[in-house]
């Protein structure tokens, strides 16, 4: 008997399979198709010949933990303890899974803000807890009146995602003030802050839980080297949490994966000294602007993209189809694979919007735009 009976093949797998079958340009899955930095591969090639292929300590390579602490201080002004408050994880997904499994008990509730990434719900259900899905406003900003009404004494976590996948929306200062008030009102409430796109932001600076001292003792942040450094296949990220919470997360982590790829940690330990994370936003903003300029003449309506490497567009002027049917037809008739936004909602809210990934080389984006102009 299935423990997750309603969960089937993900929409990302479905659309990628359709893209392959119909030889479509795949702008659905969120991974870059361009080469990684040559400095990274040079370090990898050199270190692969050295004796770094055995287990690292459970919480991570100590020198890399130190450098993450330095990066956090430089980026956000927050001082964290490398030994007690940082954990290297097998990607952000493992960090999220371990956190929920460690902290959420049976019959407790976890608040998820829809549209939401699909990895949040499964570990909640496996904890025999209850996911509470609350929709954002139609412009994808938080509705704090609705959110506050959904929180009660059983609510253990609120999961936030900023910058937001799938919409590219970013939280404002006022949003964090509301979140702090909510945490103050419920002493048992913790914040799980998914910040994997923290360095991929554009006109507005990213606001993190690390900027908010009121949240430090009640929040768990999740970051991704894979997203930041275009190495999604390496599956390596990290979690930052106060010591009393981190002790519980490490208990799950040690039996889930024990430790993370040794060579990836050693390579990143060197590479992090060479890369300027502040330049990542500019790098992806050029791609965003290039893609937006290419498709601005289509019949699609582009929504704002403030962060991440995703662009949401409305097709309401083109078709009355539901977004799943529209995306399938986009693959079969026009040769471009995208993701329907309704799949990120528990209730399947259909806003006639689709998501493109623009973390692609210029040739791929140009070819996709040529096809989209035929809509």
From TrEMBL:
Alphabetical UniProt keywords: Aminotransferase, Pyridoxal phosphate, Transferase
Name of the protein described by the UniProt record: Methionine aminotransferase
Single GO term (MF): transaminase activity
Record NCBIfam families: PRK09082.1
Aminotransferase class I/classII large domain: residues covered: 24-372
Cofactor: pyridoxal 5'-phosphate
InterPro entries linked to this entry: Aminotransferase_I/II_large (IPR004839), Kynurenine-oxoglutarate_AT (IPR051326), PyrdxlP-dep_Trfase (IPR015424), PyrdxlP-dep_Trfase_major (IPR015421), PyrdxlP-dep_Trfase_small (IPR015422)
């Amino acid at each position: 008997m299935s423990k997750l009976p309603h969960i089937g093949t993900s929409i990302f797998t479905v659309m990628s399979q359709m893209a392959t079958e119909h030889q479509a340009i795949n702008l659905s899955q969120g991974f870059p198709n361009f080469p990684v930095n040559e400095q990274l591969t040079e370090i990898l090639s050199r270190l692969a010949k050295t004796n770094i292929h055995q287990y690292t300590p459970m919480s991570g390579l100590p020198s890399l933990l130190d450098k993450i602490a330095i990066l956090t201080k430089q980026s956000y002004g927050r001082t964290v303890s490398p030994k007690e408050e940082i954990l290297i994880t097998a990607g952000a997904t493992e960090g999220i899974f371990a956190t929920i499994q460690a902290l959420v008990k049976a019959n407790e509730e976890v608040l998820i803000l829809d549209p939401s990434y699909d990895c949040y719900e499964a570990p909640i259900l496996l904890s025999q807890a209850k996911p509470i899905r609350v929709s954002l406003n139609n412009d994808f900003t938080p509705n704090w009146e609705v959110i506050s009404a959904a929180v009660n004494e059983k609510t253990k976590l609120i999961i936030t995602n900023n910058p937001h996948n799938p919409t590219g929306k970013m939280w404002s200062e006022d949003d964090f003030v509301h979140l702090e008030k909510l945490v103050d009102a419920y002493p048992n409430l913790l914040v799980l802050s998914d910040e994997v796109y923290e360095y991929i932001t554009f006109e507005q600076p990213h606001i993190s839980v690390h900027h908010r001292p009121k949240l430090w003792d009640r929040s768990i942040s999740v970051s991704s080297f894979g997203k930041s450094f275009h190495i999604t296949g390496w599956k390596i990220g990290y979690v930052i949490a106060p010591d009393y919470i981190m002790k519980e997360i490490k208990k799950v982590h040690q039996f889930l994966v024990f430790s993370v790829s040794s060579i990836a940690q050693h390579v990143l330990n060197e590479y992090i000294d060479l890369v300027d994370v502040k330049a990542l936003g500019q790098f992806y903003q050029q791609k965003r602007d290039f893609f937006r300029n290419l498709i601005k003449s289509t019949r699609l309506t582009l929504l704002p993209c403030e962060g991440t490497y995703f662009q949401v567009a409305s097709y309401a002027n083109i078709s009355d189809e539901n977004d799943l049917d529209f995306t399938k037809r986009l693959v079969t008739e026009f040769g471009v694979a995208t993701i329907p936004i309704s799949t990120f909602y528990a209730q399947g809210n259909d806003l006639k919007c689709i998501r493109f990934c623009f973390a692609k080389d210029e040739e791929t984006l140009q070819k996709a735009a040529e096809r989209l102009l035929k809509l």
